[in-house]
Prior knowledge:
The chain has 490 residues and is an alpha/beta fold. It has 15 helices and 20 strands. The relative contact order is 0.14.
Amino acid sequence: MxxxxxxxxxxxxxxxxxxxxxxHWHSSESQISVTNPANGNEVAKVSNAGVIETELAxxxxxxxxxxxxxxxxxxxxxxMRNWFNLMMQNQDxxxxxxxxxxxxxxxxxxGEVAYGAAFIEWFAEEGKRVYGDTIPGPSGDxxxxxxxxxxxxxxxxxxxxxxxxxxxxxAAAALAAGCTFVVRxxxxxxxxxxxxxxxxxxxxxxxxxxxxxVGDDASGMGKVLTQHPDVAKFTFTGSTPVGKTLLxxxxxxxxxxxxxxxxxxxxxxxxxxxIDAAVEGALLSKYRNAGQxxxxxxxIFVQNEVLEQFTEKxxxxxxxxxxxxxxxxxxxxxxxxSSKAVNDVDKLVQASIAQGAKVILGAKKDPAGENFYQAxxxxxxxxxxxxxxxxxxxxxxxxxxxxxxxxxxxxxNDTEFGLAAYFYARDIGRIWRVAERLEYGxxxxxxxxxxxxxxxxxGVKQSGSGREGxxxxxxxYLEIKYLCLGGLDK
Length: 490
Ligand code: SIN
């Protein structure tokens, strides 16, 4: 096993090698090797938990539920604030761990840690505002009262592309609402999750409230989390096909669910847009995390009048994005998560070239290593080519020309996905019309980065259901209970 002191951390205790269940670190017989996608080097070994440990974690969460839900919102907020503070105090180490296991550039990884911590801070406060209601009754001797209560034990499965923030976004809302929590993080990136557990323990979050089970039995552990009768709510971030399977498993016990699934985000540049701002927004939205986010721009639509100008400036911006090991200074685009991911992206690109797309930049694997793909710009793309039809999940920008508003809205909406969309325009009438007609859960208007703790994150169509972040995100972890108070007449 790797000596943790080699990893360049201030606090080597942040590397934990065991699942965290009921306040204890649990070892298992077999181990998983966590490797750095930039070079294939082993970062750490982690105990490989399975179905039994997942059941133990659910039992622990069930056992802690009464105690945690009975705490006042203030008490919960105090403990969550400790957790937030510890995450921010350890931002550099957490960022480094994240880059080592996931690959993204260190500055972006530290940004993700702050983004994740922000959910803990935000929901700690919002938990104090879980208000009920009184409603005029149907007759004089009755009153209608509405209270909100935690749903119960929450189970989560989280992805490798945001190993910290996707856990924080779910756990923060759950804990603030008074629920207890079990998460199975992606097998490729368990170290960020376990570091969060270490800090939760130091923050004083009681045993059983936050549990992390790491293991490669995705199907077996997934079945426990989606079918266990003591799990009241299941939440997932990941691909649409996997989401559909998990959703059907949740039906067996009629769980409350939230699903944050795939996307195919259009990024529309109208002729009246500020072109420099649009270029900057497109670069940020497309190349964040090497193109591996559900809200990344997937198709860039540019109105014919500004096509040449936008393409030239955008390509010049892409050329400047340094590719390499995320720990190296100046790197913007790190490795992709695996060589399979690189091959999948390359297949979409080559199939689109075969159908007539023109290569302006890239379109090939990068010599930096087997997990690297060059930042790519393709022109003369049409909306039915493979790079436009599929979620690319890589650093590839297909540019599609359009003539008018009607045409581009039809093309933008021509997908089963509906997570994020972006457009750049200055005409206020157009801004309202387009924002209302795009069939997406989130719209960036003259903005390429839209995610933050105060905003409702989530999609429509096959991009999922439920919202994370914001006051709406808290509702996903609360049940509404109606009290009918009668017999008030003497
Ligand atoms: C995701 O890729 O699912 C999350 C992106 C974000 O939170 O901005």
